[in-house]
Write a structure and sequence with these properties.
Elements: H1 3-8, H2 38-51, E1 60-65, H3 66-78, E2 87-91, H4 98-104, E3 111-116, E4 126-131, E5 152-157, E6 176-180, H5 181-184, E7 192-197, H6 200-214, H7 219-235, H8 247-268, E8 272-273, E9 280-282, E10 287-289, E11 295-300, H9 307-313, E12 319-320, E13 330-334, H10 339-350
Parallel strand pairs: 2-3, 2-4, 4-5, 5-6
Antiparallel strand pairs: 1-7, 6-7, 8-11, 9-10, 11-13, 12-13
The structure holds 4'-deoxy-4'-aminopyridoxal-5'-phosphate.
Length: 356
């Protein structure tokens, strides 16, 4: 949905890579993450400083093929290597539907999916995936498994902690923080994510995982991402020509328009409801606003058992609440599709009335 912004930017992010460039596996042999392009590291740090959403001072940057690869790298790095049983991996429901799949796909001996963090009560070590703002429901979250000193490790998945989706209330400073270009700039296809990791050994292990998995991360993608991240940091400079050149203001306006349209349609319906988000002060924007999450977590009324099935009958494809570890009355709807798709969705949704 941010394509219109990048079109407006014209050639600002165009780059040419000659046939003789970027051949080596190595980007910087002296860096702990030896396949990380220095230009990307610099652009990542500059962007976090510009937005003020995460501290970067003492953290190591590890680049991944999307944050999807970094989730796996983090699970590997945080799993104890001397335990007889795999470590439990939990996340509070509703949780991002990929977590169970990613955790159990290869039936690792190191870690296993243990479900909803709210109901997790087994003894022993665990890893909690904390997604904030959360996918699917847009809520700002904190770890929920508490009172286990020394037993739990946290991975903060901050894919959506950017000003177009939510207010930036502080620069977060967690042990392992994951970000991705997919959600920040819209360049999901470049497959670039990055982790900010406090502990050197954890960062080293994550780097090792990626070395074994893919011997690094595409240099072309890293260089392109560096250019794009650089462009959005530039767009935030105070002497920019128009507020609509500021990437985050532009994209926040788009998100807010979509949410207004969806809320108007839902208000007229006698079937659906949406979560409400509180007004919160954003340090980056310098004003208060409600969240505009990348997904709408929509609920059907009590007379409809399976909201996903009901909507499919009306030619609307969603993801059922069941996939997120919760009930089928909820569905997740993407708020970041292309304009034509989003408008068609609204049009179809607006024609549905309960007649049962
Ligand atoms: N974490 C969350 C919470 C996500 O929603 C997504 C994408 N849907 C990812 C990680 C993975 O993103 P990517 O691999 O494109 O960086």
């Amino acid at each position: 949905m941010f394509e219109s912004y990048w079109r407006k930017m014209g050639d600002k992010c165009t780059m040419v890579i000659a046939g003789y460039e970027s051949l080596s596996y190595f980007a910087d042999a002296k860096n702990l993450c030896w396949f990380l392009e220095p230009k990307l590291e610099e652009a990542v740090k500059r962007l976090h400083l510009t937005v003020g959403n995460a501290v970067v001072g003492d953290h190591h940057v590890v680049v991944g093929t999307g944050s999807s690869q970094l989730i796996q790298a983090a699970l590997y790095a945080l799993s104890p290597s001397d335990e007889p049983e795999p470590v439990s991996v939990v996340s509070a429901a509703p949780y991002y539907s990929s977590y169970p799949e990613v955790t159990d796909f290869l039936r690792s001996g190191l870690y296993k999916w243990a479900g909803d963090a709210h109901t997790f009560d087994a003894d022993g070590p665990y890893i909690e995936l904390v997604t904030s703002p959360n996918n699917p429901d847009g809520v700002m979250r904190e770890a929920v498994v508490v009172n286990r000193p020394g037993q739990g490790k946290l991975v903060h998945d901050l894919a959506y902690y950017w000003p177009q989706y939510t207010s930036i209330s502080r620069a977060v400073d967690f042990d392992v923080m994951l970000f991705t270009a997919s959600k920040c700039t819209g360049h999901a296809g470049s497959r670039i994510g990055w982790a900010l990791v406090r502990d050197k050994d954890v960062a080293r292990k994550m780097t090792k995982f990626i070395e074994i998995n893919t011997i690094g991360v595409s240099k072309e993608s890293q260089l392109r991402a560096a250019k794009i991240l650089g462009a959005i940091s530039d767009s935030c400079l105070p002497f920019g020509p128009s507020k609509y050149d500021n990437f985050f203001e532009y994209s926040k306006t788009l998100m807010a328009e979509r949410w207004d349209k969806l809320r108007a349609v839902v208000k007229r319906s006698n079937i659906f409801s949406l979560p409400k988000y509180p007004n919160q002060y954003c340090l980056f924007a310098g004003d208060s606003s409600e969240a505009h999450p990348a997904f709408a977590w929509m609920k059907c009324n009590d007379r409809i058992e399976d909201c996903d099935k009901f909507l499919r009958e009306h030619k609307i494809v969603t993801r059922s609440g069941r996939r997120f570890g919760t009930d089928p009355k909820h569905v997740r709807i993407s708020m970041v599709s292309r304009d034509e798709e989003f408008n068609l969705f609204l049009q179809r949704l607006s024609t549905i009335q309960w007649s049962g």
